[in-house]
Amino acid sequence: MPAANLAKSPVNVRKRTDARADAELETSIASHGLVQNLVAIPVARKKGHYRVTAGGRRLDAIHRLIEKGTLPADHQVPVLILSNARDGREISLVENFDRLAMSPAEDCLAFRDLIEVEGRTPADIARRFGIEERFVLGRLRLANLAGPIFAALEAEEITLDIAKAYATTADTARQTAVWEAVRGTWSRDNVNEIRRLLKNYSYRADEPKALLIGRGAYIAAGGRVEDADLFSTAADERWVDTHILDELADRKLLAEAEAIRTREGLGEVRVVAGPRIPYMETYALQPLTGAQEPLTLEQEARKLEIEAQIAEIEGDPDQEGKEPDGEDEQRLRAELTTIVDRAPRYDAEQKASALAYVVLAPDGRPQIHHQLYVAPADETVGEGMADGGEGDTQAQVQEGAVTDDTRPMISQRLYDMMAMMKTQLLALHVASDPGFALDLGTFIMADEQCRMPSSGMPSDLHALIPSPLIVDFKPETAATAEWVRLDESLDRSWVGRNTIEERYDAFCALPDDARGVWLGCVIARTLCAVPDGGEGASFIDHLGHKLGIDVAAWWRPTALTFFDKLTKPGILALFEEIGGDELRLRYSGSKKHDLAASAERLFGGHVIMEPEVQQRALSWLPDAMRFDAAPRDVDQDLPDVTGAQEQTYTPADSGGDGEDGFAKAA
């Protein structure tokens, strides 16, 4: 039927339109033709003419194309004629009301298939559909999201905005890491938090930590650069393998701290891989008071000159009504500050008992912060490691008590790694003891109920999985293998039911032991990894102590999880601690990489040596991995804790690594 004989019917239920959508429809019809017929009713006393009750937007687009000359004036349109004109309004409503839009995931897959299967280009698709090429590229980026995220989009478990937040990076490994970190937390639906985590999961090339290491060293260590091309600058280039840069920076800063402590004669040095010291690092420390050096004659003269110039500016009547701090005055005041606020001078005796911080200058150079602090009392024993606090990638260096070499220097990343492995070990034991988990869960919920105001909800029980301290750290330990086995053993037969009521009834029908495993797991997974000395760390230690966890039987330090993060003198100091000078000298000529591998074998009991030395090596633990308040002697058994469980869990004897399940030990 000729389009010239068709007009929109006033009974068409769609009254609103959208200019952008109309333009896209017009382009689509020009490219693909009219895919769906119109619906019309005859016009009374005007033979051959019809009013369209369904398809008015399509008809308008065809008329515009005819006016532009894109379609001929006699363009034919497929039309379904209604036999009863009274049905026009209802049919119009049916067509517009009973319409299911494609899901965003279907959009993405359709565009991807056009490109990958049919060989279309994004520009060609954009032209034929009347949309921007950027929109097509965006849908293509969404189609290539990490598998778990796109599956959630397909299942409508996340919104399109959440998916777009993940798609701000094309690195699916980063997407997956952040997805795993926020899944089960309040941040899972927070677009800004997801974007922030993705952004923090990379470094700008002009950040101090990146400048400290250098692009060449980072890439040589296996680091990747995102969106690097001939036109990239330091402002838009991002280094995505943060763990590589963190570890390189840790090693370099620890070496710098060691050299600075020796050169300056300082009692203790901590490093912060950033330009500022976090407030929580120093709020409890006492600043060390040093002597101010007198100004030189030149400095004194310049100081008086600046003060006179500032007074002249402030007294200038022309400055009335202007900003009190003009550019000249700000410059003068800044110069005056550098003259007056100079770093204090400390004598050798003060330095010997002082705590200093090494920070990064904006250009990446390590430098001592001008303020020194009174070093806290050394309460460490055994291997001599101390808490590194809560700063951003920090470490501390203390003067050794046994040898002239420094004791092991522990970076904040290593503290966080040990906290994660230690808490995972605790959680595994909680999950394996439903009675203990029930008491712990009841206490946590009751304590929260007593201390927090009611939210008005009939129930607000929280069992969220906390975000890991280090997103990209996946510990490979005996506890990890056992967690996998425990998770796979969960009876999930009730999960697929449609309604809450059905799921609840199916869950209640599980055997007691199956429900008990679920109870232990959901409570254990809520435990947060807390670095040694952090808020809540003492309660973590108390729980592990109460459960009687034998950490040495479950966890041994390896190159990946411990020794690679120490300096060579630090590893040798541990060798001397368990085997004296002879053992230390035996390995002193090894390279750092080989030394870390040897330490893994030595402390894992895979090196033949004197029985007493081997026993000390197998019993050695860093303080941050212990659950008891103080290190135990080598020959000391686990302490007797009143009220502790009668059974403790240790790795199964077969293989000694716990991968074959739990073995009960009396």
Notes on the protein architecture:
With 666 residues, the chain is of the alpha+beta class. It contains 27 helices and 15 strands. The strands form four sheets. Strands 8, 9, 10, 11, 12 and 13 form a six-stranded mixed β-sheet that branches. It has a four-stranded mixed β-sheet with strand order 1-3-2-4. The chain has a three-stranded antiparallel β-sheet with strand order 5-7-6, with no helix packed on it. α4 packs across α6, α5 (122-129) crosses α6 and α25 crosses α26. It is extended and about 110 Å long.
Low-pLDDT segments: 228-232, 379-406, 451-459, 630-648, 652-666
User: CA-to-CA gap between the ends?
Assistant: 90 Å
Strand residue percentage: 5-15%
Shape: extended
The average pLDDT is 77
What's the Cα radius of gyration? 35 Å
Count the DSSP helices.
Answer: 27
The structure class reads alpha+beta
Work out the helicity level. 40-55%
Instruction: Report the major sheet.
Output: 6 strands, mixed
> How many beta strands in the DSSP annotation?
15
Topology at a glance:
Layout: E1 6-8, H1 19-32, E2 38-42, E3 50-54, H2 56-68, E4 79-81, H3 88-97, H4 104-116, H5 122-129, H6 133-143, H7 147-154, H8 160-166, H9 172-182, H10 191-200, E5 203-204, H11 208-213, H12 215-220, E6 225-226, E7 238-239, H13 242-264, E8 268-272, H14 279-282, H15 297-314, H16 327-340, H17 348-352, E9 354-360, E10 366-368, E11 373-374, E12 394-398, E13 410-411, H18 412-431, H19 434-451, H20 478-488, H21 500-508, H22 512-524, H23 537-547, H24 551-554, H25 568-587, H26 592-603, H27 611-619, E14 648-651, E15 662-665
Parallel strand pairs: 1-3, 2-4, 8-9
Antiparallel strand pairs: 2-3, 5-7, 6-7, 8-12, 9-10, 9-11, 12-13, 14-15
Helix pairs in contact: 1-2, 4-6, 5-6, 8-10, 15-16, 18-20, 18-22, 18-23, 19-22, 25-26
